[in-house]
Amino acid sequence: MTSQLEDRKLDPAVALPAIDETAPREPHRQFALKHEDCFVVSDSYGDIRGTGDGLFRDDTRVLSRFRLFIGGRMPSLLGASLSQDNILFTANLTNLATIGPNGSEALPGVVHIDRTRFIWQDRMFERITFTNYSAREVVLPVRLDFDVDFRDMFEVRGTTRSRRGRAHDALVGAASVIFRYEGLDNVARQSVIAFSFKPDQLHPNHADFLILVARRDSRALYLEVGHSEAVPSSDRFRAAAARARFAMRSKRRQGATVFSSGRVFNDWLTRTRADIALLTTDLETGPYPYAGIPWFSTAFGRDGVISALQMLWLNPELARGVLAYLAHYQSTDTSVFDDAEPGKIMHETRKGEMAVLRELPFGRYYGGVDTTPLYVYLASSYADRTGDEAFVDRMWDSLGAATAWMEEVGARNGEGFVTYNRAADTGLFNQGWKDSSDAVFHADGTIPIGPIALVEVQGYAFAAYQGMAALAARRGDDAKAAHWSALAERIRHAVETHFWMPDRDFYALAIDGEGKQCAVRTSNAGHLLYVGLPSAERAQALASQLLSAHLHSGWGVRTLADDEIPFNPMSYHNGSIWPHDTALCASGLARYHERDSVVKLMSGMFEAAVRFNMRLPELFCGFTRAASDSPVAYPVACLPQAWSAGSAFMMLQACLGIRVDGWKREITVERPRLPIGIDNIVIRHLAIGEAKVDLIFERIGDRVVCYLDHRHEGLVPLVVRS
SUPFAM superfamilies, alphabetically (predicted)? Predict the structure, then answer.
C-alpha cells in the first residue's frame, strides 16, 4: 500500500523556499578567554567566523574573522580545551589529505596542528605548531583568513546603525597588516595582526604560508593581534603566558578555598573558582566580577552584587570592590535618557562607540529597579560578615542616598513598594532581573501597565531596610534605626497582603499600575525566602511548590511553572533555568530549615554542570529531566557567567549552614548537610577578623559533624547547632 506521502506530487508551480545561506552553522562548542576589558570567543577549531564571536576590546570587535585552512580545507578537529586556570585555549587538529605545491601529497592525519592562545594586556597571543608524524617531510599550504570590522558590541548583537565612522584601507607590511577605523566619536581605533615570520603571500584579508616540516619534526608560527605593532616570537609568547598565569594564580588565591572528598565535585569547584577569577577585573576601586562573556563582559550592578553575595562567605574583598565601584558611580542627577535619579545605583556601563555617542543609554545606565536595594543589602551583609566599621562609615552617605531613593519611590504608591516604569523608550521595558520584554505578564499572558512592583524587589527592599536599621543601631542612631525597621515591617505586611494568592498558595509575580496581581507562579517568589520575608506557614507552602514538578525540572528551578499559559522551556525567562536563580531559592530554603531540599537542588545543579563540561551557563532550557537525559543548552547563553559560577558556592553554603559573624568574630554552623556522594569538605583559610582558620565537615553515619582544624581550636569561637 502506498503511503499518502508517496502519493503526493510536487506542483511545479509552487516555489520551494530558498536555502538560507545565513542560517546558523552546525553548532560547535565555544571557548572564551579574557583579561581585563579584552576578550575573545572562538569555536572548537580556534576559528572566529564573524557571527557573535570575535576578539573584543572595550566593547569594540577588533578581530571579526580568523580562520585556519590547510591546503584550502579546514583541518579535522581532534579536540579542544581550556587549561584549568582559564588562561590557555588549545585546539588539537590534524590535516586532511593535502597536495603540496610540488604535487606531493600529505596523507590525512599525519600532521598534528596545535593552536594555543591566550589574552594578556589587550593583546591576543597565538602559537600554531605543526608536528609531522609521517616518514618524509611535508610542505603544508597554510592560509589564515582574517578581517576586522570594528563593530560596536551592540551592532554585533543585532542593533542597526544609520551610519558608521570611516574604515581605512588595510596597510600591508612584510609580516603584518594594520586595520584602522575613525569612529563617529572621534576615537581612532587600530588593530594589528603580526606574524613571527614573513608569509609567502600577504594580502589585506589573508596570509599564505608554505610551511616545510621535516619528518618527525615540528615548526611553530607565532602571531599576535593587538592595538600596536610588535614582532611575535617564542620568547614574547612564553613571557606573556607566564605573566598571565601568575596574575590568574593570584586572583584564584583570594579568599578561602574549598576541597572535598569527591574528585569530580572538586573539578567543578575548581573550574567555578577559575571562572570567577577570569571574569573579575581589577578596577581602580577594587576587584569587580564582570557579568559574562560575550554579551555582558562589563560591570553590571545587579550581577556584580549577586555574585558578591554568593562569594561573600569565602571572599568578602569581592563585595568590598563591588560596593566601592557602585558607590563611585551612584547617580546624583535626574536623566530621563539614562533612567537616572539621585541615589540610584548603576545598572550597566559600556565603553563602545555607540554608548559614547549616546545612540543607546548604556554608557552609564540606571534602569534597574532592584540594583539599589540589593546594593544596600550587600553593604549590610558585608558589614555583618567582616565587622568592617571603617568601610561602612565611608559608605554611609551613599547608603543613605540609596535608601532615600527607595523611600521616595515607595512614597509614589500607597504601600511603599519599589516600582519601575521606564523613563524613555530607549530604556529597558522591564527592569528586574527578568528584563526581557515578555517576562512580566498577567495569567492570561497579557502585558501589564506600569508602574510595576516585582515581588522579589520588595523582598530586597525589606532586607535593605532591615540592614540599614541594624547598621544605624550600631552607629547609635536609634531614631533612624526605628524608622528603617518600621519601613521593613511595612513592606513585609504589604507583600503579605497584596502579593499572596490564597487560592494558589503562592506569591504573585508582580502588582501592576492598576493594583492588579500578575497572578502567575514564578521563581521570583523564591527570592522572598532568601531574605526571610514570608511567615513560616507561607514559606512552607512556597517551598513545596518550588520543589514540585511544575517548577522543579529535576535540574533546577524553572523561572515559570510549566502549567502557566506563557510557559516555554526554550524561552529566555519564561520557563528556562538560571543557576543563580536556583541558588537564591536554595539559600532561601536553607533559611527556613529545608536543608534536605537544598541538597536535592545542589545535586541537580552539580549533575547539570558535569554535563556542561563543569561550567554552568547563564541559563539552560527548562525541559523536564528524564532518566539518562542531559540538560538542554540555551543557544546564545553567556559562558562563563559570573553569577552562574558563583551559584555553586551559594548552594554549598546553604548545604553547610555556615554563617560568619564579623561583629562577634564567631562562626555558626546550623544543621549542616553534605552534598550527595561527598563524605568530607575542608574550607581552608576562612578569614574572620585578623584570623584565618580551616573548617572541616565530615559525614559520620547519618550525621554531619563540623570542627576546626586542631591548629585553630580556641582561636575563633565555633557554634554548631544540629
Answer: Six-hairpin glycosidases (SSF48208)
Write the pLDDT tens digit of every residue in 40-76.
Answer: 999 999 999 988 899 999 999 999 999 999 998 999 9
- Position 107 scores a pLDDT of 74
**What confidence tens digit (pLDDT) does each residue in 586-615 have?**
999 999 999 999 999 999 999 999 999 999
- Say which DSSP state 534 is in: S
Q: Are 293 and 41 in contact (CB under 8 A)?
A: yes
Q: What is the three-state SS of 141-183?
A: EEEEEEECCCCEHHHHCCCCCCCCCEECCCEECCCEEEEEEEC
Residue 342 has a pLDDT of 98
Residues 288, 232 share a domain? no
Q: How many domains does the chain have?
A: 2
Residue 524 gets which letter from DSSP? G
Distances in whole angstroms, Cα of residue 10 to Cα of each of 14, 15, 65, 348 = 8, 10, 41, 54
One domain for residues 281 and 228: no
Strand order across the 257-260 sheet: 257-260, 680-688, 691-700, 703-708
* pLDDT mean across residues, the chain: 92
Claim to verify: residue 610 and residue 565 sit in the same structural domain: yes
Whether residues 436 and 415 fall in one domain: yes
> Which of 205, 177, 227, 234 is CA-nearest to residue 69?
205
What strand order describes the sheet that includes 138-147?
65-70, 138-147, 206-213, 201-202
Rounded to whole angstroms, the Cα distance separating 64 from 229 reads 19
Tell me the three state secondary structure of residue 299: coil
pLDDT level of residue 224 (50, 70, 90 thresholds): very high
All cell numbers assigned to 485:
525597621
Q: Looking at the structure, do residues 285 and 228 belong to the same domain, yes or no?
A: no
pLDDT at 24: 39
More confident residue, 418 or 98: 418
* Cβ neighbour number for residue 396 with a 10 Å cutoff: 16
Give which of 679, 685, 708, 688 is closest to 696, Cα–Cα.
708
Boundary-marking domain end, from 614, 630, 656: 656
> Is 715 within the bounds of a domain?
no
Q: Is 670 part of any domain?
A: no
Q: Phi, psi (5° rounding) for residue 538? A: -70, -35
Q: What is the DSSP string of 40-65?
A: EEE-TTS-B-SSS-EEEETTEEEE-E
Closest Cα partner for 55 from 231, 206, 245, 191?
191
Dump pLDDT digits (tens) for 296-331. Answer: 999 999 999 999 999 999 999 999 999 999 999 999
Instruction: Let me know if residue 264 belongs to a domain.
Output: yes
Provide the domain limits for residue 316: 254-656
CATH number (domain holding residue 166): 2.70.98.40
Sign of torsion over alpha carbons 551, 554, 557, 560: negative
Q: Is residue 671 part of a domain?
A: no
Q: If DSSP states are collapsed to H, E and C, what string results for 598-654? A: HHHHHHHHHHHHHHCCCCCCCCECCCCCCCCCCCCECCCCCCCEHHHHHHHHHHHHH
Both 162 and 28 in a single domain?
Answer: yes
The CATH number covering residue 348 comes to: 1.50.10.10
Q: What is the DSSP letter of 16?
A: P
Burial tier of 333 (Cβ tally within 10 Å: 0-12, 13-18, 19+): exposed
| Bridging pattern class, strands 680-688 and 691-700 | antiparallel
Percent of the chain that is helix, strand, coil (3-state, to 5):
30, 25, 45
Asked whether residue 341 falls in the same domain as residue 203, the answer is: no
Rounded Cα–Cα distance for residues 589 and 655 (Å): 10
- From 634, 656, 678, give the residue that closes a domain: 656
312 and 651 in contact (C-beta within 8 Å)? no
Give me the long-range contacts of 703-711 (CB less than 8 A, separation at least 24): 704/672, 704/673, 704/674, 706/656, 706/669, 706/672
